[in-house]
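Handout, tutorial session.
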Amino acid sequence: MIGSKGMRLITFITTLVLLLNNDQVIGATINHEQSLDKRGLHARAGGAVPVYTTCTAPGSFALTFDDGPYDLGSKLDATLDASNSKASFFINGNNYGCIYDYADTLVERFNKGHLIASHTWSHVHLNQGTYQQISHQLDLMEKAMVKILGVKPLYFRPPYGPYFLDT
């Protein structure tokens, strides 16, 4: 059972996400099965990469959580389960801990229908690296997600928000 302190923290995080989140989400328009057959940064998205800045369905909102996985996740998962809600988790490979230490949690979330997506391996600024460095960050995440979930990420959120269409 989640204590009042944990519930307040989850409520606070959710409120911040809903009120303050103006990050971009870059997504591919393919499904998980297709993603395993794609190669290269642009090939994964089938050419043009759509950038989502709002929900596509009027009157809807998205619960998104960045920078994990991390220890608070189990309390958050219980809250999402209790309300029959789904969320998007933009995860790092090595930020608050190693992604492989949270493999069971990620598999459970994925199997429950939550979106698991990339947020780079180590939460780097995309505008402070070369194409090769950025590509390496994304490749590390892809390899980890394939190893843990059996799929490549379909969506990506750039850490700190900035991105360039040519990266």
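The second record follows below. Compare its token runs with those of the first.
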Amino acid sequence: MLLKRQEPPSSYKELSSYETTLLWCSDGWVYDPVAMKRRRFFTGDVFSMEEEAITRTSFSDVQYTEQVKIIVLSESPRVWIEQGEMFTQI
């Protein structure tokens, strides 16, 4: 999934929101235990992200934790705000 990072709008209508603790692990994935998904980010000419569902609830070798609020603005295309930054699927 290719992503575009942009400034969040001053007003928006949220579909849903949740608070979670992101778990940055040594395997290169960032785990979101609330959404039951894991993400891996790539940079280069275009910022991109790979995301997939997870079933496990225990994680080993956590390197860093980050408490965030995620606000979902749209599912198709996927648009969300995370810690003040807005991301749009392109």
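Points raised in discussion: The beta strands are 3-6, 16-25, 30-32, 37-42, 48-53, 62-75, 78-82, 85-89.
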